[in-house]
Amino acid sequence: MKKTTKFLYIFTLTLFSGAILAQEVTVQDRYTYKSGDPNGIGKWYLGREIAHVMGFQGMRWLERPEREKEENTSVLLKNLDIQFEDTIADIGAGSGYHVFKMAPKAKNGLIYAVDIQDEMLAELRSKKEKGSSKNIEIIKGSEKSVNLPENSVDKILIVDVYHELSYPVEVIASLKKAMRKDAKLFLIEYRGEDDTVPIKLLHKMTQAQAVKEMKAAGLRLKQNIDNLPWQHCMVFVKE
């Protein structure tokens, strides 16, 4: 009887270990590696090469005076239809260009400012200390997770960042866990279909590619708000 119990234990453990290994292999198989564009990292997901991350050295570009004219950022924030009690996560918040504009609009809510670069996080903290908006929580994410609480956000804003994520599958999975039932994910990317948009090819995305990748994560396109000069404003919800 003891031998039978031991055999069943070993058999179950083997099956469990095999299932974990198969899951890991499946996740790894989602990415392929080959040479490509000089602006890419040589890692591909669903036919798209992932772009190099813009480092903290580009902070001044994020805060450039002409950004409002080029991107119509005030219209973008109107698209979010921010309510007083909204909890919103800005993923890849950088120096906080959008964070400190959203905080007063969600004055009874909360803004999560998520970034992985220490220099960006330091800038966010400095601005928060100097400003009047206290409803901002600064979060250090990782390459694979946004490190947000489960079921915590009403809206997610990702501006010109998604195409640089080294692990898009894992990051979107972590975002999906953080989304409440009726939450919306606003994916902002320079239009890859438009050759006149003066941005490097790998730092743009087509709607078709974005829909393909979000669908793989269990998100569907609810709307593409076509009112920005250079960018898609794609709204995704849980399927």
From TrEMBL:
Signal peptide: 1-22
Gene Ontology BP, a term: methylation
SUPFAM superfamilies assigned: S-adenosyl-L-methionine-dependent methyltransferases
InterPro entries assigned to the protein according to its UniProt record, in alphabetical order: Methyltranfer_dom, SAM-dependent_MTases_sf
GO MF annotations in UniProt: methyltransferase activity
Keyword Transferase attached: yes
Domain Methyltransferase, first and last residues per copy: 87-211
Keywords for the protein's UniProt record, in alphabetical order: Methyltransferase, Signal, Transferase
Name of this chain's protein: Class I SAM-dependent methyltransferase
